[in-house]
Automatic annotation (TrEMBL):
Residues 23-70, 80-197 form the Cation efflux protein transmembrane domain. The chain crosses the membrane at residues 23-44, 56-75, 82-101, 113-133, 153-170, 176-194. GO terms for molecular function: zinc ion transmembrane transporter activity. InterPro entries: Cation_efflux_TM (IPR058533), Cation_efflux_TMD_sf (IPR027469), CDF/SLC30A (IPR050681). This is Cation transporter. It comes from the Bacteria. GO terms for cellular component: plasma membrane. SUPFAM superfamilies: Cation efflux protein transmembrane domain-like. The lineage of its organism: Bacteria, Pseudomonadati, Pseudomonadota, Alphaproteobacteria, Rhodospirillales.
């Protein structure tokens, strides 16, 4: 999930080849999990899985963009951050809308698929956390990628708990509540990123 993470790494300025390679591995993990979770989310009828899938998509794009703008001038990185912030806001609004829509229907998500894929996502994020572990004391931006994967792992635990709740209650509510929380976090993070990007844009413009 995205509590002040997933995109606040616009100031990343190069670091080592080893870090770039690690970032590429983490991008591959996130991209694979996006495809896995979007299919599973639709199959299971789970809003929480779909929200988590979008988080993986956002992280894949965010880390890819970070990799692409390494070493570029601040104004370019600030604009990239603004794009990230706006797409995160769109994602948050979509999850909110789609969750509300599903709250009106009576279908119950498939708890077994939710739990199994939620667990797979947890393993994927823990693998990213381990890959990034030695960079966690790096600069603010390097650290933010690590923090992001760690926070996402906490989000995966919420999805697994939602799956247990759906299984126990045979209702969609635990799924919808977790999806709503994830949408709120998307919107909150997008505000932080947009605010930071605007500050950096002002900073980059000559007085
Ligand atoms: Zn994330």
């Amino acid at each position: 999930m995205v509590a002040g993470c997933c995109g606040n790494d616009t100031k990343f300025d190069g670091a080592s080849l080893a870090f770039k390679r690690t970032l590429i591995a983490v991008i591959a993990i996130n991209g694979t999990m996006f495809i896995t979770e979007i299919i599973a989310g639709i199959a299971a009828g789970s809003q929480a899985l779909l929200a988590d899938a979008l988080d993986f998509l956002g992280d894949t794009a965010t880390y890819g963009l970070s990799l692409a703008v390494i070493g570029m001038p601040l104004i370019v990185r600030a604009r990239a951050a603004l794009i990230k912030g706006i797409s995160l806001a769109v994602m948050g609004l979509w999850v909110f809308g789609s969750t509300l829509y599903h709250a009106l229907s009576t279908s119950t998500p498939q708890a077994e698929i939710m739990g199994a894929v939620g667990f797979l996502a947890l393993v994927a994020n823990l693998a990213s956390v381990l890959l990034l572990l030695k960079y966690r004391d790096g600069d603010a931006n390097v650290r933010s990628v690590w923090l992001c994967s760690r926070n996402d792992a906490i989000g995966n635990v919420a999805v697994i708990l939602a799956a247990s709740g759906v299984w126990a209650s045979q209702t969609a509510w635990p799924d919808l509540v977790v999806a709503g929380l994830m949408a709120s976090l998307f919107l909150w993070s997008s505000l932080q990123i947009i605010r930071q990007a605007r500050a950096e844009t002002l900073q980059a413009q000559p007085a």
